[in-house]
Amino acid sequence: MTKIKIPAPLRKYTNEESVISTKAQNLFGIFEYLVFKYPQIKTHLFNEKAELHAFLRIFVGDKPNEVNGKEDVLLEKDHLIRIIPVIKGG
Amino acid sequence: MLQSNLIIQPNVIEKIKSHLRHHYPEVGVGFLFGNEKNARTVSYAYPVQNIRKNNHLKGYQIDPLDYLKAEQFAEEKGLQILGIYQSSVDQPNHLSNLDQHYALPFFSYLKVAVYKGEIKEITSFRFHDQLKRLAEEPIFSPKAQLNY
User: Which of A21, B68, B89, B117 is deepest in the core (most CB within 10 A)?
Assistant: First the structure.
């Protein structure tokens, strides 16, 4: 099983679940599963062009994904995907 | 449109004020932790590095790795990350386009206006699901806590 860690700001859309497990073996498969199971999260992950929002970063384990979710990535068993919000303002 | 209250424990607001006073004239930033069991209550805060390179533009950015550490800290302590705090340096606590563009749901954005090293105003904003933008949320705090 691969797992995806939901950041605190988006947990209200996953019934407060912080870690979601799925059999998906690729990054896009994880996204699809997440949106299928929690439809309300869709607009908070993707823009109208179906691209990941600019204020989110994808980490595979503790390392940033180089293309930040723009291309699919095959995952190893027990990989943990993290969605990290970009915190910026002022 | 006002939202529900943000409660900040007195020792936390003093810690935030002290950090931002000492950080002046740079923009200081940090995380807010607490829970929402009865009401949204901030019980802990700690500062993080502002990695925005053009700091003269009075903005802030937090390293994603610092966010990861904050999540781990929250889990260890049985808390939630409730938002962030930042100083508005020599300017009032208005919302910028950058604030609105990067606004996250759920988070409280606590702004503290610091003029010449002195705290003048404390304001909080939260993303409003219906309005689709940040809107002010009242801060509930005994007067003494917000006495600048």
Answer: B89
- Superfamily covering domain B6-124: Cytidine Deaminase, domain 2 (3.40.140.10)
Residue A53 near residue A34, CB atoms below 8 Å:
no
Task: Label each residue of B40-79 as H, E or C.
Answer: CEEEEEEEECCCCCCHHHCCEEECHHHHHHHHHHHHHHCC
Residue type, B129: D
Q: Does the CB of A56 have a partner CB in chain B at under 8 Å?
A: no
Residue A59, token pair as written in the block: 């980490």
Ordered by start, the domain boundaries in chain B are 6-124
Given an 8 Å threshold on Cβ–Cβ distance, is A90 in contact with B109?
no
Task: Please count the residue pairs, one from chain A and one from chain B, whose beta carbons lie less than 8 angstroms apart.
Answer: 72
Token pair 């600048």 is at which residue? B148
ipTM of the complex model: 0.82
Q: Closest Cα of chain A to B21: distance in Å?
A: 17
Is pLDDT at B92 greater than 60 in this prediction? yes
Q: Are the CB atoms for B61 and A88 separated by under 8 Å?
A: yes
Round the average pLDDT of chain B to a whole number and report it: 90
pLDDT in tens, B48-84: 999 987 656 678 999 988 999 999 999 999 999 999 9
Q: Residue holding tokens 């929002």?
A: A53
What single-letter amino acid sits at B42?
A: V
